[in-house]
Amino acid sequence: MKKQAAFILASLLLVTAGCSQAQPEAASQEIVKAKVVEVVTVKPQTDPVLLQLTGIMEAKRDAVLPFGTGGTIASIGAVKGAHIAQGQLLATLDTRYYQKEVEAAASQVTEAAARKSKTLKGANEEAIEQQQLQVTNAQNQLAKAREDVEVGERLLAGGAISQSEMDERKRALASAEISARNAQLALDSLRRAAEPEDVAIANASITQAASQVERAKKSMDDAKIEAPFAGTVVDIYKQIGEQVSPGEQMIHLVDLSEIKVTLDVTNDEIGLFGKDSKVQVESQDGKTGEGNVTFVAPVMDKQTGKYRVEVTVANPDESWRGGMMATVKVPRKIDGFLVPLESVGVSQANHYVMAVVDGSTVKKEVKTGQLVDDQIEILSGVSAGDQLLRSGITFYVEGQKVEAKGE
């Protein structure tokens, strides 16, 4: 019995000793076991990299056309949706009043021209003869007045007339002298050619009358609407017979032969857009076309902090319409390698990645470049074929045992 108990105790001791030795070995195996990590392999960029920006399509030209004057609408020569040629008459006002203004102003021009012609020719012979008779009559009156004064002086000396009667004869003489002089001046004026002042007055009258004609004709022109460009009628805001004021909206016209996409571009990306450079444009329904950069703002917009860029695309079938969303794609140059953004960490002022080398993590400082969607360009610090931790690099330290999984 004692021998059996001793044997059992010895067996228990052996088992206990064996277990105590196995536990440290298992613990050691758990410590050195490598953690499985997802990696990305650094590869040269073979596919083209595009910058994609979104903008809104606009018509090449978009105008709301008014009348230049007020009145009653007499005719409308277009309907909504109609394709209009440049210069086509779209609407008119009742122009009877303006037509009378033109006719009245034209008659004033004719009258002013006639007056000028008469001024240049001078007075006719009949007027000169009549004035000559007036001069002769005035001279006869003057001669008689002088004779009356001479006789009166003798009569006054003899006491035959009073001093007041003598004064009256002198006043008659003075009046006769003035009349004779004025008659002669009038005759001289009729006989001489037109003075420069008279010609200037006549010219001014013609100019004023001609200006009235131009104003009346402008009113006639303002009473009609012609298409300033070929396009499509979007809307008509008034009907025949309605009153309209000068400048009031009448017809909405758009030109969709080309569409324009306006973009807001950051300072880092503006260098990709050169005037007259070619870009790809894709509409929201998947249609693509080639666009031309027609405008690049020389200064930044203070409100948005970005540069305005305009891209023009031919639209001969007018399948692209104003208000649609469009994506503009511009090739961008990549000088380094593109890796996921979360593969790059920041340590103080430097960027770094965690590479996997021989089953351990290695911290590498890198120089970064441009952001491309959810990727970042690495200009230096890595080589093609390097395996980098895809994400969570802040949870790893250099030299940590890992097992790479992924690319």
TrEMBL record:
Residues 338-393 form the Multidrug resistance protein MdtA-like C-terminal permuted SH3 domain. Residues 274-330 form the CusB-like beta-barrel domain. One of its GO terms (cellular component) is efflux pump complex. The keyword Secreted does not apply. InterPro entries: Beta-barrel_RND_2, HH_YbhG-like, MdtA-like_C, RND_pump_MFP. Residues 128-226 form a coiled coil. Belongs to the membrane fusion protein (MFP) (TC 8.A.1) family. This is Efflux RND transporter periplasmic adaptor subunit. The lineage of its organism: Bacteria, Bacillati, Bacillota, Bacilli, Bacillales.
